[in-house]
Amino acid sequence: MAHLGLVTVVVRDYDEAIAFYVRALGFELVEDTRLGGGKRWVVVAPPGARGSAVLLARAAGPEQETRIGDQTGGRVGWFLSTDAFDRDHARMRAAGVEFEEAPRQEPYGTVAVFRDLYGNRWDLIQPRPAPDGT
């Protein structure tokens, strides 16, 4: 069986990225291993996440630095699912997370777009239950 284990977000600085993802988004620091030469293996994930997590990778050189904050060409690139949209939306706003819009209802659930500390666009989403209740 395969699953998506990690996705990478290119960051400017490990510690400022950890602070944002842990304090503002409520993620847990799963791993922070020094690899030598100033490199680190930094993994964060939402509490209770099963499978996927985010690898915070510091940009290595000018070409990668140009990707910080716009890794997906302006599109939403990450989707943070929640089972309590109002709770998480309020907590994130109180922590200074920048939302681009008010929450809206879509056929697939309740959603609002926010930006991480570098400007990457994310959806906070509470999926609508399937018709069979799952």
UniProtKB/TrEMBL annotation:
The lineage of its organism: Bacteria, Bacillati, Actinomycetota, Actinomycetes, Streptosporangiales. Gene3D superfamilies: 2,3-Dihydroxybiphenyl 1,2-Dioxygenase, domain 1. It comes from Allonocardiopsis opalescens. This is Putative glyoxalase superfamily protein PhnB. It comes from the Bacteria. SUPFAM superfamilies: Glyoxalase/Bleomycin resistance protein/Dihydroxybiphenyl dioxygenase. InterPro entries: Glyas_Bleomycin-R_OHBP_Dase, Glyas_Fos-R_dOase_dom, VOC_core. Residues 3-127 form the VOC domain. CDD domains: VOC_like (cd07263).
